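Intended use. Records like the one below are meant for learning the mapping from a protein sequence to its folded structure. Do not use them to infer anything beyond what is encoded.
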Amino acid sequence: MNLPIRHRPGSLLEHGLRWPEPVAAEFEELFDRMSRFLQSASLTSPLTEPVAWAPPADLHETDEAYLVECELPGIRREGVDVTVGEHEVSISGELKECGREGVPRHRGRPTGKFEYRALLPVDVKSEDVTASLTDGVLTVTIPKAQPAKPRHIRIQD
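Structure written out for the chain above:
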């Protein structure tokens, strides 16, 4: 059984849906709760393969760029893969489980493969993307491609 990866590209209002804000917020909460339920059900079922988990992340937009801040505590930069396409950013990797003695009584931190994806509404300069990992927070800066500015064209004789 395949379960969806939790995608958090932004709120429902940011996608252009014209619902009143309280209704959109209720749907947002419902989607989050269903995602957590499906994720917890899949991680405990012995019949399914472990699914990728989505690390907590924020996506901010400025006039010049998109900024993704993704929480990845305990992960080395060599274990993270950042891919940026025309309209998408993807952050993936794997957090290996630490070998500990004894029987685990409670698990609150996810392990295994992770993936975060977000759709970007405008073209970006993928060759100018930068990423840094500081204090367990991965910051990816994705510059926007500059749209063509209107200019006056002189008609030749």
